[in-house]
C-alpha cells in the first residue's frame, strides 16, 4: 500500500491518496480548490493508472472539504464521513466566502461511517475510530497490517488539533488521543491533516499537550 500526500489551499492541508497494489485508491480529505490544485491531483491519478474507489472526510472543516464536490463528480464516487459532522459540512457553504472561497461548491454526505466500521480498499482494511474533540464527527482510519493511521486533525507532530472551533473541546480531544491513539502500537505512523507525519511512540512521550 502507498500513501501519497498533497498539500493544498492556504491552510496547508494534507490531502491523501491511498493506493493498493491493484491500483485502487481512495482520496481522504480533498483540500484542492484552485484549478491548478485539481489538475495536480488528476494528473497524478492518471499517470499512476489509479482507479478512485472511495472519498472520505476525516472531518468537515473547510480546509478538508474544498474538493469534495469536484472529486465526487470527476470520479463518480460517494462521500463518506461521520454523521455527527453533517452540520459542520453544511456550515462551510455559509462562511466559505468570508475565507476567500467564493466559488466553493457544496455537496452532501452520501453514507456514514461510525466507530468499529471497516473501510475496504481491495484487500486492505481500515478500522474506523471515532475521535471527537477537534470536530464533533471526527474519525480516523487505522490499518493494523501496514501500521498506518490517517488521523486528520486530532494529533500532529508535536501538537494537537485546535479546540476553539464550534464543536471543539479539549477534554474530549485529549480523551480521544489517549484512549484511541495512544493505545495503538508505538511504531504506528500517523499521517496528519497538517504538517509532517509522526509516530504514536514519539507523541506519547514528547507531545507537549497530551502525554500518555
From TrEMBL:
GO terms for molecular function: hydrolase activity; metal ion binding. Keywords: Hydrolase, Metal-binding, Zinc. This is MBL fold hydrolase. InterPro entries: MBL_Glyoxalase_II, Metallo-B-lactamas, RibonucZ/Hydroxyglut_hydro. CDD domains: metallo-hydrolase-like_MBL-fold. Residues 12-194 form the Metallo-beta-lactamase domain. Its cofactor is Zn(2+). The keyword Methyltransferase does not apply.
Amino acid at each position: 500500500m502507498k500513501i501519497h500526500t498533497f498539500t493544498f489551499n492556504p491552510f496547508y492541508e494534507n490531502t491523501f491518496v491511498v493506493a493498493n497494489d491493484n491500483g485502487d485508491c481512495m482520496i481522504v480529505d480533498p483540500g484542492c480548490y484552485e484549478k491548478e490544485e485539481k489538475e495536480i491531483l488528476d494528473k497524478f491519478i492518471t499517470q499512476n493508472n489509479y482507479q478512485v474507489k472511495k472519498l472520505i472526510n476525516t472531518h468537515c472543516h473547510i480546509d478538508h472539504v474544498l474538493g469534495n464536490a469536484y472529486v465526487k463528480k470527476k470520479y463518480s464516487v460517494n462521500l463518506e464521513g461521520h454523521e455527527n459532522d453533517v452540520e459542520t459540512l453544511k456550515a462551510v457553504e455559509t462562511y466559505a466566502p468570508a475565507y476567500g472561497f467564493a466559488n466553493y461548491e457544496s455537496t452532501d454526505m452520501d453514507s456514514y461511517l461510525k466507530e468499529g466500521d471497516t473501510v475496504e480498499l481491495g484487500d486492505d482494511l481500515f478500522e474506523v475510530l471515532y475521535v471527537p474533540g477537534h470536530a464533533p464527527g471526527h474519525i480516523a482510519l487505522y490499518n493494523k497490517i501496514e501500521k498506518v493511521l490517517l488521523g486528520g486533525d486530532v494529533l500532529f507532530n508535536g501538537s494537537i488539533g485546535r479546540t476553539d472551533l464550534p464543536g471543539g473541546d479539549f477534554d474530549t480531544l485529549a480523551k480521544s488521543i489517549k484512549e484511541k491513539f495512544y493505545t495503538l502500537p508505538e511504531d504506528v505512523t500517523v499521517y496528519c491533516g497538517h504538517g509532517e507525519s509522526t509516530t504514536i511512540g514519539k507523541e506519547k512521550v514528547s507531545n507537549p499537550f497530551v502525554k500518555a
